[in-house]
Amino acid sequence: MSKPLSEQITDIHARLAKPVVLVGMMGAGKSYLGAALASALDLPFCDSDRLIEEKAGCPVAEIFESYGESKFREAERNTIRELIGQGPAVIATGGGALTSPETLELLECQSVMIWLDADLETLWARVQKSQSRPLLMTENPKEKLASLLEQRRDLYVRAHIHQKTGAQNHQNDLDAMIKALYETLNTATV
Ligand code: S3P
């Protein structure tokens, strides 16, 4: 029989020496579930996109527009490196963070990475009205979302934990992430 969730949380606390980092596509729920996970585990929460915006003094979309995607990626890489150095916490990343080989390697070695994996229809339902995602400001944003998902799947599978998520109850996703974290910290050398 598995331990009650409260005991799993206590065990996670005792064993966790690295940040827990949520990766996955735009609309996967990284920010929402990341904040919920941090609150359940009583850890600090940070969203790398929000920190980049704070530092730049403008929204992500404006950084893309004024300085280009490669400058944004540079800021993203630096911000994630800085956050990883701050010890146990829950960090939500932007959907393209793993396209930097340096970030991928850093997160593989120095974090417990959770891939929040939602299917295309769920992602699309969540992002279609968004005006804040510069990569989707195209003629056919759904097609773009699908192609980014295809390009990035091989990166996301490198995560230590693969958490399927959908339109259903967020509490189920949260409980499943806690259970997966507990099991991973108990069985694997992450
Ligand atoms: C991006 C995802 C966005 C943001 C930027 C680029 C991407 O974050 O970092 O617009 O490349 O997928 P979310 O995943 O939080 O939407």
What are the salient characteristics of this protein?
5 strands, globular, alpha/beta, 57% helix, 11% strand, 190 residues, five-stranded parallel beta sheet, binds shikimate-3-phosphate, single chain
Q: Proportion of β residues?
A: 5-15%
Query: Helical percent range?
Result: 55-70%
Number of helices: 9
Number of beta-strand segments: 5
- What is the ordering of alpha helices and beta strands? HEHEHHHEHEHHEH
Hetero groups bound? shikimate-3-phosphate
Distance between the termini: 24 Å
- Biggest sheet details: 5 strands, parallel
Estimated structural class:
alpha/beta
User: Any idea what the shape is?
Assistant: globular
Radius of gyration: 16 Å
- How do the strands line up in the largest sheet? 2-3-1-4-5
Mean pLDDT: 95
Low-confidence parts, pLDDT < 50 over ≥5 residues? Answer: none
Write the layout of secondary structure elements.
Blueprint: H1 5-15, E1 20-23, H2 30-41, E2 45-47, H3 48-56, H4 60-67, H5 69-84, E3 90-92, H6 101-110, E4 112-117, H7 120-127, H8 141-156, E5 161-164, H9 170-187
Parallel strand pairs: 1-3, 1-4, 2-3, 4-5
Helix pairs in contact: 1-9, 3-5, 4-5, 5-6
Structural overview:
The chain is of the alpha/beta class and 190 residues long. The chain is globular, with a radius of gyration of 16 Å. A five-stranded parallel sheet has the order 2-3-1-4-5, with helices on both faces. The two termini are 24 Å apart. The chain has helices at 5-15, 30-41, 48-56, 60-67, 69-84, 101-110, 120-127, 141-156, 170-187, and strands at 20-23, 45-47, 90-92, 112-117, 161-164. The mean pLDDT is 95. It has nine helices and five strands. The structure holds shikimate-3-phosphate (S3P). Shikimate-3-phosphate is lined by residues 26, 30, 49, 60, 94-96, 133-135.
